[in-house]
Design goal:
The complex is a heterodimer of chains A (140) and B (151). Chain A has 140 residues and is mainly beta. Chain A is built from one helix and ten strands, in the order αββββββββββ. Chain A is 6% helix and 52% strand. The radius of gyration of chain A is 17 Å and the shape is globular. In chain B, strands 1, 2, 3, 6, 7 and 9 form a six-stranded antiparallel β-sheet that branches. A four-stranded antiparallel β-sheet of chain B has the order 5-10-4-8, with no helix packed on it. Classes of the chains: A mainly beta (140), B mainly beta (151). Strand 10 of chain A pairs parallel with strand 10 (139-150) of chain B.
């Protein structure tokens, strides 16, 4: 996967976003535990603080659901990373699914909050966090 | 003995059977991981009050890159308003992609296929929803998360 990452970074080009790369999309539990390796990178101009999280199935198989935390280990879960560098991570979580089930490995960037002095008038700001998820499947 | 140098020279000059029989097959293989990402252009988008005081609005931009099937979702919008403020309604629009004005439910784009590189505007607003038709003075903030999922 290391050889493929430069290509993927090149393809992602001028986008500033962080990306979660999975080279494998099908997993099975061993001794009741699923182990997922992924790589994370971003292309911002400066080092960025990223957080990784695991989501379960949502309203359909294409939509990420709730963030899963019970028994979930993500190493590292949160880290600062320079631009265009790849960081390897490992997600492990318990699973005893009876049918092929979608999960989502996600990396999120929260932009820093800035507050402006509005001198009592009405004013506002909108903060958009951006998240990149990759779907994978866990088989019984 | 005179013939020996001649035989050696002839042997060296002759085509080497090994080289003559060699052929080389070059084979290159690769596989690109599927990915999808979305970003906005930096930090918070400032929203300013309209002339008649009924609406805050601001504009930014987003960039979407995907090399396979993907879907974008926009989370429920989290709004904070000044204490005692009149009712108002938030809205976040990622142009030509997905929009949401709900504080309780996420919104999703249609699934996309193939490679996409797309840029568009982010339009964000808070509009009064009260009998005075005005936004109360003070600081307002909207928060949401745009998620691009590689399928």
């Amino acid at each position: 996967m290391r050889r493929l990452l430069p290509l993927a970074l090149l393809l992602s080009g001028q986008a500033l976003a962080q990306t979660a790369f999975l080279d494998q999309r099908e997993f099975s539990a061993r001794n009741g535990v699923v182990r997922v390796k992924l790589m994370v990178s971003h292309a911002r101009q400066q080092a960025a603080e990223l957080s990784v999280r695991l989501k379960g199935p949502g309203k359909d198989r294409d939509t990420p659901g709730e963030i899963l935390t019970d028994g979930v280990s993500i190493v590292p879960r949160q880290f600062k990373i320079p631009p265009n560098k790849a960081r390897r991570l490992m997600i492990t979580f318990p699973s005893n699914v009876s049918t092929r089930t979608p999960y989502f490995a996600c990396v999120i960037y929260q932009p820093p909050v800035e507050r402006a002095d509005r001198n009592g008038s009405a004013g506002g700001s909108m903060l958009l966090a951006t998240e990149s998820c990759s779907r994978f499947w866990v088989n019984p | 003995m005179r013939i020996l140098p001649t035989l050696i020279a002839a042997a060296l000059a002759a085509p080497t059977p090994l080289l003559a029989a060699t052929s080389t097959d070059i084979e290159a293989k690769g596989s690109a991981a599927t990915f999808c990402n979305i970003s906005s252009d930096g930090g918070p988008i400032s929203m300013v009050l309209s002339a008649n005081g009924d609406k805050l609005s601001g504009e930014g931009s987003y960039s979407l890159v995907s090399n396979g099937n993907a879907k974008v979702t926009l989370s429920a919008v989290n709004q904070t308003s000044p204490n005692g403020a009149g009712a108002s309604t938030p809205s976040i629009v990622l142009a030509d992609l997905v929009s949401n004005n709900s504080s309780s439910a996420a919104a999703a784009s249609n699934n996309s296929g193939g490679a996409i590189r797309k840029q568009g505007a982010i339009n964000t607003s808070i509009t009064e929803n009260n009998s005075a038709k005005l936004l109360s003075a003070g600081d307002y903030a909207l928060k949401a998360t745009a998620t691009c999922t590689s399928l």
